[in-house]
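Q: Protein A?
A:
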Amino acid sequence: MSRKKPRGRVYLVGAGPGDPELITRRGYALLMSADAVVYDHLIPHELIMGLPPRIERHDVGKQAGCHTVPQEHINELLAKLAGRKSRIVRLKGGDPFVFGRGGEEALYLAKHGIPFSVVPGVTAGIAGPAYAGIPITHRGLVGHAVFVTGHESAGTDAGGVSWSDLARLDNGTLVGYMGVGQLPVIVESLIAEGMPPDKPAAIIERATTGSQRTITARLAELPRLAEAAEIKPPALFVVGEVVCLHERLDWFAALPLFGCRVLIPRPDPQADNFYSELRLLGADVLSIPLFYVSPDFDRRAWARLQTRTRPGDWLCFFDGAGVENFLEIWRQQGKDIRGLSVFSIAATGIDTLTALNAIGINPDLVDAVGTIERLMETMAAKLNFENRRIVIVKGDGKNEVDESILISAGAEVIPLVAYHRRSFKLEQNDCERLNRFSPNVVILVSDAIVEAAARVFRGDAMGQMLTDAICITVGIPATKAARARGIIITHELAAPTIDGVVDALVQYFS
């Protein structure tokens, strides 16, 4: 008797309030290992665009007044996916159980016998004020905080919100979600019920992102100032004495790269290693995969590599993909990193150096300019290659090397293709997210990335993105490729270093 296939498990995961790094470690691990992801409109761009291509994606985005997919259809979709997938992540903004209808979805799953788990997230009502320098509790000012939804009409009891009780809130902070459209009615109701019209208040738009804006005012003036500033959802409003701390504690907007929206095209799944540094300085960073690489087992070259290896032989790496895929195949041959100690290692390029440093390798020879030709010339001029072998690690059809430079120096050259490169095609939703992100900086770190970006950004709107943004090229190959494509370069960084990129942006935006 055959057993019924067990249902998959649905994970209700909080994505946090907007900053992609505020998702929990558990939530991110589940997201990256999911079979399918069902996500809302306000999920951070990078969390979705960085998903591995094997993951099935379902956009059920909701905006105020515009529900792309009705809630009952979302529930049915989760049930359907649970019947054919093992791990389904329902990714929700903020925390699933804080004004996110996660409770309704959990009840539906429980009713239909579908296993589920809840992974809490950082809710906007705490993170948003924190990023605006407003602690929602503070000894000596307020001792408690109340969270409410302003989405329902303030003139009714819908949603269980009693504005008359909230108006008498003493020694506390009122934090309202989804209240932009109803703000005038909410404020009018609070004042009519007895809340002082001069009570400190604030509204925070797109909290925790580089587009964050904060307006503070007396409560009675807040709707007028918010309308004049054209504040749009998503936004929070805060009422309480703690708002007075904003001017002294507004740390996020004071960061040197606040308001800088950086687009970094990259291979997948390579991580751009200056993300964290840019974000620590206040920048929004969106990394989009334009192509992916897969290991390529060049049997003949690997056979030559593993015979008669002698101290003094060299491994040459030109990109991070070469490092990562070489090591993957190396491990598949039953070897570990200690086996590389017989080689001297040469490298060029920022992602190459970072990939090597990540596994504890400092190259014996580095070309600071970042060109393959320059590295070969330096090696031929400085080193004795008599009866030595040089293994050139490369991708298919890329990183062509003039081997004659090394051969004439007496070396035996082994070209080793370690990976294939395949192009990604951005989906319509990805393009829309990219347009909404509206980058004002694009960083191009290799000629391969420039070529891939040129293919992706062929449309009028996408092409305009490169024209309007500050364009930084890192390394001579990227600069040459960008010029050949007619891309206007704002900054050229010859030395491929993280510090160089960060310093250029800080100087520009300061």
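Q: Protein B?
A:
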Amino acid sequence: MKRREFITLLGGGGGVAAGGAAQQKRIPRLCFLTFDPGTLRTRSPRFDGFFQGLQDLGYVNARNIEISYLSADNNGDRFPALIDECSSLKPDVIAVTTTPAARLLKKATRDIPIVMAALGDPLGTGLVDSLSRPSENITGMSLMVPEMAVKRLELLRELVPGISRVLVLSFSCRPNCSDTGESDGRGSPWSWPHSSSQEIRAGDDIQAAYEAGSRARTEGVLRYRREHVHCPSRSAD
């Protein structure tokens, strides 16, 4: 999102009048909606740029902006209730850090601007119609679109000329979530020649993945993070 557009979104709170009193400027409100409570406690480095951007624009929480942090506590079933809570706060902007919540938000409101904070593939999951011109009220950042995954492979091949075997560490967006098995063919790592994929759902899986890669005489490793569209909550696993 462009700097001027973000300022306009946050500054659009307008003023309210109480009886015959003069208009008083309302502090804009931002809802920050996330899946993992650790994101809020430790302020994940993944979102440093987002909050640094707010600071660079002059926004300080509780001074000239109100930021409401809402977490699903690792339970995706809580998202509908959190979205209702967020809507009741009448935010000027909603920042969301996970694709399932963003999809629910898209259905819940067409008026409140929704900012994707480093989600997966917004095009493949139907959040936007175009990366260059996002539709409706959704904008933001995406770090893991399939085209970027292919670009990483190209860079690896430039760094290691003649590489022929690549191990793909496939990280799910949620630890206990199985793959949907769906692929749109736009650069899935499983379609790369001479590549093998190892599913990573827990820390112990990493060691096993490297051992499998060693047996296969892997010459390079790529990390691939998937966002699932249909994924049961942890409580259902």
